Amino acid sequence: MDDVYIKKFILTELKKFNFKVYTKGYKYLKEAIYMCIVDEDALDNLSKNVFPYIAEKYNEKSYLNIKWCINQVINTMYNNTKQDIVSKYFNLEYNVKPSLKLIIYTIVCKYNYR
């Protein structure tokens, strides 16, 4: 696997939405997606397999801070992105917010089946 290609792919996918790219949550989301692409088993339990490693890497006190930051950036993205874009990309009904796990899972699947 080519790290540079994976990171470009993640950025390309996330650019389809109006994320606040300068936030910690966005940085953590990119990291979480990357970890799940590299190791698909990590998707089974994000709180155990992904968030603690991100917390350690960025010197956060708790993995709960990581999850909270990511959820905040997802909420902002959901409010700032046109609903038809979100619903079409994640195959959801109109006005249904995608969960953190669904966002990561969808991007991992798009990477695997590109």
Total domains, how many?
1
Question: Into which percentage range does the β-strand content fall?
Answer: under 5%
Q: Provide the CATH architecture.
A: Orthogonal Bundle
What structural class should be given to the helix and strand makeup?
mainly alpha
User: What is the number of beta strands?
Assistant: 0
Primary descriptors:
114 residues, mainly alpha, Arc Repressor Mutant, subunit A, 0% strand
Structure description:
The chain is an all-alpha fold and 114 residues long. The protein has a single domain, classed as Orthogonal Bundle (Arc Repressor Mutant, subunit A), CATH 1.10.10.10. Helix 1 crosses helix 2 and helix 2 crosses helix 7. The protein is globular, with a radius of gyration of 13 Å. The mean pLDDT is 94.
Describe this structure in a few short sentences.
The chain is mainly α and 114 residues long. It has seven helices and no strands.
Write the layout of secondary structure elements.
Layout: H1 3-14, H2 24-38, H3 46-49, H4 51-57, H5 63-80, H6 83-90, H7 100-112
Helix pairs in contact: 1-2, 2-5, 2-7, 4-5
